[in-house]
Structure formats: C-alpha cells, structure tokens
C-alpha cells in the first residue's frame, strides 16, 4: 500500500503535489494549513504513518463544523471526474481564480480544474479586482463562499461581472443574496456538495453529468463518479454512509420542478416546547427583514423548552420586532426566543459558520 505524505497547504505546494498525483507520477498527499491547531487536526485525521486502505490521491480533512473532523479519501479519478463535469456544465475549460484555501475541497478543486484545463490558476491576493485582471484564459471562472460574494458585491462588482461563471458553495446561498447577484448582472451559480462528493456536484439544483441524486424519506442520497473512497481509518463510518454505491448525506431536500432544493440538515428540525421547528426556515425568514444583513439560527438545550431557538443576527432590529416578523408568515411558536446581535458572524477557514463560537456567545 502507498504511504501518505504531508505538504504545506499553500497554493504553490498543493498545486505541485496535485499536478504530480493527477499525472500518475506523484504520491498521495494531505495538505496541512499553517495554523498549529488546524494542522494538528489534519495530522490526526490523515494519519500519515498508517498505510492507505483505499484508492486515494488526496486526503482532505473536513472542517468539523458539524462534528469531529474526518479524513476524506479522494481518488484521482474522482477529482478528474468532478473537474471535467464542472467544465462541461459551465461551457468548456477556462482559467480559474483561487480566492479560497487550497486545503479545503472548494479550493483544491479550483486547482484540479486548472490542471485539467492546462491553464495556470491565478491566486487572489489583497485585491480581488487586481487578481481578476490577471486572468487571460478563453473563459474566466472562480468559486467562493456566500460571505465572499456578499463582500465583493460591495467592493469589487465590476470584477465579479467579468467572470463567465462564479460557483457559490460551502454553505447555503441566501435567497436575497441570489436576487442581489442576479440584479447586479453577476453569473453566480449556487452549488451543492461537500468534501465527500469532491466539491459541488449539483449546480442550481441539477446534478452534474455522472452524478445521480435520490431522496430517502427526505434525506439526500448521492451516487456518481466524484464520490470519495471512504473515511481514513474509519471503516465503520464508511460502511454507514456508503451503501450500494450511494452516499447518505446528513442533508434533507426535496425536488421542485425536477430540481433539488436543499432544505437543511437532518438535525435542523428541533422540538421546542413540544413543537417541531425547522431552523433553516426561520433563518430564511429573518434574512427577509430589510435591516438584517445576515443571520444564523441554532437550537440550544433548555431546561424549560427542551430546545430554545436562538437567532444570531447582524442588524439592528430588536427581539420583539424580529419575533413579529417571523410570526407574519410562520407559526409564532417558531419565532426565536432569544436574539443575539453581532457585528459579524464567526467563520471557519472553510467559509462555514463557526457554530461552536456562536454557542460561546451564550455562556
């Protein structure tokens, strides 16, 4: 069996290691971020001293936003299949701008697509606009998380408009942000996927070529050429989520007009005071308030209610105003019982919300 090597999680180092492994002459690797705590999690999940148990080109560590970080084994074929299917959907290969960390799947796949296209990626620095100007390829692409898109709409709108397509992933794209992007003339394509699916595998509700999507009592199942090979040294967990070629995600969804709509996570429905509350629906309603810039809704254990619905909000509306706003379209029992106002939502390096830090705001 092959050994696994650790490489620095910088764009140049990851691109070099990735190019070699995609060419078939390199050895499997795991990119390691510079942050000591994050690096320790990678070393623990990747276990470089242990033999590799599956077909693997890269081991990526999940962000741990919803639990313990896991080492995800991605094969050369899965990486190439994802890059090829993405280019096919977008209209052909192009040059990519990298504004994301390459040790997460979104950033890694920007580099993979660059290698497959044979065009050098451009790494975004302090100025997104200046980086976009350095793109010279026949088609211009990038990918980012919703928070980045919202920021660049304020600061780098002309640069955003210059791209043939911008893939938005890593977290759900709020409806107001989608509308704002469209009105501004920005081609932003919401993508659904995760590390285990080799990055986004469903674009604007439609699976990429080679990917199939099904529902099992509302749970999203994914099958296809981009799936991971397994979890590093976690055979029981691998067997639990990979069944008959289908990956059982932790997300719920529904089909609307033939397109997949992601509703939220399986555990996003909480019981508060004996009432089932769907947290993403409450969050979406809060984001419709004209003075709410961003919001996250969590369920917090509570001795009186069982689970207390808490909203973390960027904006100036007070608790009663937001409760009334939610109750205009949803049951009043769904309205958040606590509202925590913040200047900014804490983010992980992957671009996902740091839920643990939010919970610390309540202590």
Automatic annotation (TrEMBL):
Matches recorded under InterPro entries: AMP-bd_C (IPR025110), AMP-bd_C_sf (IPR045851), AMP-binding_CS (IPR020845), AMP-dep_synth/lig_dom (IPR000873), ANL_N_sf (IPR042099), ATP-dep_AMP-bd_enzyme (IPR050237)
Residues annotated as domain AMP-dependent synthetase/ligase: 40-206
Gene3D superfamilies for the chain: 3.30.300.30, N-terminal domain of ligase-like
Domain of life, source organism: Bacteria
GO MF, one annotated term: acid-thiol ligase activity
The AMP-binding enzyme C-terminal domain, residue ranges: 283-352
PANTHER family tied to this protein: LONG-CHAIN-FATTY-ACID--COA LIGASE (PTHR43767), NONRIBOSOMAL PEPTIDE SYNTHASE PES1 (EUROFUNG)-RELATED (PTHR43767:SF1)
Protein name per its UniProtKB record: AMP-dependent synthetase
Organism: Kribbella turkmenica
């Amino acid at each position: 069996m092959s050994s696994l090597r650790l490489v620095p999680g910088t764009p140049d180092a990851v691109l070099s290691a990735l190019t070699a492994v995609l060419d078939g002459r390199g050895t499997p690797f795991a990119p390691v971020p510079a942050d000591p705590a994050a690096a320790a999690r990678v070393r623990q999940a990747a276990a470089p001293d242990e033999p590799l148990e599956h077909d693997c080109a890269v081991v990526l560590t999940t962000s741990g936003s919803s639990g313990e970080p896991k080492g995800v084994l991605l094969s050369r074929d899965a990486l190439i299949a994802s890059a090829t299917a993405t280019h096919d959907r977008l209209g052909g290969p192009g040059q990519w701008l990298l504004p994301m960390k390459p040790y997460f799947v979104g950033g890694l796949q920007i580099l993979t697509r660059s290698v497959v296209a044979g065009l050098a990626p451009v790494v975004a620095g302090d100025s997104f606009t200046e980086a976009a100007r350095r793109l010279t390829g026949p088609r211009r692409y990038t990918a980012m998380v919703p928070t980045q898109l919202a920021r660049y709409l304020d600061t780098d709108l002309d640069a955003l408009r210059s791209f043939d397509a911008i893939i938005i992933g890593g977290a759900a794209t709020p409806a107001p942000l989608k509308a704002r992007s469209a009105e501004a003339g920005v081609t932003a394509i919401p993508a659904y996927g995760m590390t285990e699916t080799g990055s986004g595998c469903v674009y604007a509700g439609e699976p990429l070529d080679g990917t199939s999507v099904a529902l099992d009592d509302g749970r999203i199942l994914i099958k296809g050429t981009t799936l991971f090979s397994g979890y590093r040294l976690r055979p029981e967990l691998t067997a639990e989520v990979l069944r008959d070629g289908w990956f059982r995600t932790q997300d719920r969804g529904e089909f609307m007009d033939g397109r997949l709509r992601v509703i939220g996570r399986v555990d996003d429905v909480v019981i508060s005071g004996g009432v089932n509350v769907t947290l993403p629906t409450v969050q979406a309603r809060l984001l419709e308030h004209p003075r709410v810039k961003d919001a996250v809704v969590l369920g917090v254990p509570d001795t009186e209610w069982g689970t207390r619905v808490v909203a973390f909000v960027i904006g100036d509306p007070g608790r009663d105003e937001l409760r009334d706003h939610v109750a205009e379209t949803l049951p009043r029992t769904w309205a958040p019982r606590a509202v925590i106002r913040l200047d900014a939502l804490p983010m992980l390096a992957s671009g996902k919300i740091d839920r643990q830090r939010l919970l610390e705001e309540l202590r």
